[in-house]
Structure formats: structure tokens, C-alpha cells
Amino acid sequence: MGQQEECFLKKCTSKELVRLDLAIKYFAIKYFAIKYLATKYLAIKYLATKEQTVKLLKYSVISLSLLGLYAVIVTSVGADKLAYQTIFKPLPPVTEVTPDSRENAMVSLGERLYFETALSLDNDLSCNSCHKLDAFGVDNEKTSPGHKGQRGGRNSPTVYNSALNIAQFWDGRAADVEAQALGPILNPIEMAMPDEAAVLARLVSSDVVGGNYPQLFAKAFPEEKEPLTYKNVGAAIGAFERTLLTPSAFDDYLMGDESALTAEEQKGLQRFVETGCVACHAGVGIGGGMYQKLGLVVPYESADQGRYDVTKTEADRHVFKVPSLRNIVKTSPYFHDGSIATLEEAVKLMGKHQLGKDLSDAEINEIVVFLGALTGRIPLRASTESAGCAADTSECSAEVSP
Q1: Domain spanning 248-376: CATH superfamily
Q2: Can 102-245+384-397 and 248-376 be said to share one CATH topology?
Q3: 190 catalytic, yes or no?
Q4: At residue 15, does pLDDT exceed 60?
Q5: Which of 48, 211, 259, 283 is the most interior residue, by most CB within 10 Å?
């Protein structure tokens, strides 16, 4: 049942209906702003005249201006919370798993595999090497060191809340966390295992610390005749990663706790919305739900072709998955190549290149203050080295506030 139906069933007051109506209009303006911004760079390639290009640019700016205008109107009549709840969504609760359930067995296996260095050729790298669970799911490197110190061309994004994304990797080449988990293991620059058979041979070897992988896979996949498969390695790691959610003060605020955000953070939230950041950074992930061209309004120089390398479609050149902003304060450096050191610089560049706005230092600082409220409470593992500890979530996990 939607908010509108609930409101009518409760016989809402006229003021409540006005607030709801404004929130709906707010959402509609947001939709059209996204539509114009998302299509502008495509249309410009095929428009015949400069006048048509200028006209489309004007429509994009108008859409974003209307979005900001409705933010002001909605806030002025006290309907800001309703509007925010329309634009954003709090994190879903992590499903409780019972100690004897198949799901818990798969999650426990996935956690152990997440820390398993035997999945790398030299037995020295694991998923946790680049996506450190005690460091908000990143290594804070521009690009991560892999097999024999090799580095790729893209920054390692956080694993926390990543299951909520539209797809995985900056270019979206993996549909979900289960598929993504398998990529780095066979990548010659990352973990460098030669093939799937070599991975499985490692897992059944008595040399693996802790051993017992055949029994653990059988317990996690009881209905399968051959449970220890490469696909199931990804399935187990993905099941574990789906539990890695980090509820924040902003989630508390969205769920009704007015005191969860400070006055400064609420001011920053309003600035974030009015500026037009929500054209891309919305939903449960505050991003991660769509693709967008880097340099949508003002061109951004980058040799990385983005999603074009996956699809070979011209429209996808320099298009990347929009990153989630959850825990963004803790996951520097920024952008697909890790080239931006500070969050303030990242906000400034996004304002210019994505929205065509030159944000003042004061506006940038307000937005950054709000972004700090997206820092979540993470399940910090007591040891990032011991696979044995990682296999026992009841012994090795603790809720830690940021």
C-alpha cells in the first residue's frame, strides 16, 4: 500500500494532504531532472544545430532548478521528512539466520572464503586484502596491489552495502555480488589463479589452514550432488556480503528519529537535495542504483572508457555506475581511478561536471557535513588474518559504531 492510499484510509488532514501532494510533485520533478540529465549527452551527439543543443541544456538546468525549488517549498511547509522518505530509503534489516539453517551455513562458509588466502596464486591475498572489513570495506589506496604488487586502473569500491547496487564493478560487468566475487580470483593482476580447477584443488587440499572445505560446502549446499564448485564459491561469498549492511544516523532519521541528525547535518541534507545531488544519489544506497556519464554537463577528462569497454555501445563511453555515498567519508580516495584525495574536492568536481554548478566552499562544507551522517555502524571482525576466526561469526563479530 502506498503513502497516498494510507493517507486516505487514515482520513488525513488537509495539511497532511498538501504535504503529500508536494512530496509527490517533488518526486516527479526529480524524475524529469534525471531523465534530462541522463539523455542530454546522448542527444547532443545527434542534434543538428547549436540552437537545439543550447535548448536541451536549458531544459536540463530548468529541471534541476525546479527540483531545488520544490525542495525549498516542501521544507517551508514542514513536509521535508516526507520528501526525504520519498527520495531516500533506510537500509533493510539483515535477515536473522539461525545456527542450524542452510542459509547460516552458506554465510559462514562465505565469510571464511572471504578471508581465504588460498584463493590466490601465492597464498597471500584474499577478498579482505582490498576490501578490508575493519576499514569500511576498502584499503584507502588509489588502486589496490594485487599479484606480485601489480595494480589495475580502477579504485576498489567498498564491499559494505554493495549488494544493494544495480550491478558490480565500476562498469557494471557483474550482475551481482555472487558473480563479482569470482572475477578477482582468476584475474592475472589480482589473485591470479590460473583456472577454476586450480581453485577447487586448493580448497580440497590438506595444506589449507583449517581444512574441511568439502564438508563445509556439503553443509551449505545439501541438495547438490557436487557442492564444491566454482559457482558455489561465489554463491557463498555473495551470501556473506549480503549481510554487510551499515545502518547509519541517516537511517535512524528516515525511520523517525528527529534527533538522529544534528542541525548542521540537516542543513547539509537540505543543501544536498537543493543542489541536485539526488538526481543520481538517491534510493536506499544514496547512489549505486543507476549508470551515469562522467562529465555529463561539463566534460571530464579520463582515458577510462567506462561501460563502453563492456557493451561496445557508443552511448556508454565514459559511463560508470554511480557509487553509493554510504560511508563515503571513510572510503577515500575518490572516483573510478582513485585520483581525487579529498571529499571536498570530489563534491566540487561533481557539482561542476555533473550539474554545471560552481559550488562555494560554504556549500561544499554543508554537503560534506551531511555526508558524514552516512557513516554506518559496521560489523567489525576481531581478526582479519585468521580464517578460523572468520568462520565463527558468533566469536569474531561485534557491532562497532563509527
Answers
A1: Cytochrome c-like domain (1.10.760.10)
A2: yes
A3: yes
A4: no
A5: 283
Spell out the residues 6+ positions from residue 150 whose beta carbon is closer than 8 angstroms to its own. Answer: 189
Question: What are 379's strand-pairing partners?
Answer: 399
Q: What angle do CA 63, 349, 67 make, to 5 degrees?
A: 20
Beta bridge partners of 145: 151
Position with higher pLDDT, 2 vs 23: 23
Q: Superfamily assignment of 102-245+384-397 in CATH?
A: Cytochrome c-like domain (1.10.760.10)
Against a cut of 0.85, is the pTM above it?
A: no
Is the preceding omega at residue 402 within 30 degrees of 0, hence cis?
no
Q: Which pLDDT tens digit goes with each residue over 307-318?
A: 999 999 999 999
3-class DSSP state of 224: coil
Among 111, 178, 190, 241, the active-site one is 190
pLDDT tens for residues 329-359? 999 999 999 999 999 999 999 999 999 999 9
**Residues 289, 164: Cα–Cα separation, whole Å:** 8
Q: Measure the CA–CA gap between 161 and 171, rounded to whole angstroms.
A: 17
pLDDT tens string 375-401:
999 875 433 444 444 433 333 333 444
C-beta pairs of 96-99 under 8 Å, 24+ apart in sequence: 99/394
Residue 211: DSSP 8-state: -
Phi and psi of 244, rounded to 5°? -90, 70
- Residue 396 to residues 96, 237, 329: CA-CA distances in angstroms? 17, 17, 26
| Strand boundaries in 226-311, DSSP class E | 291-293
**Segments of 234-300 assigned E as strands:** 291-293
Pick from 113, 106, 99, 107: which is nearest to 217 by CA? 106
Q: Where are the domains of the chain?
A: 1-87, 102-245+384-397, 248-376
Encode burial over 102-129: b for 16+ CB neighbours within 10 A, e otherwise.
eebbbbbbbbbbbbbbbbbbeeebbbbb
Strands, E assignment, 13-164: none
**Residue 228: all three cell numbers together:** 564444491
* 8 A C-beta contact, residue 310 and residue 333: no
CA end-to-end distance (rounded Å), the chain: 35
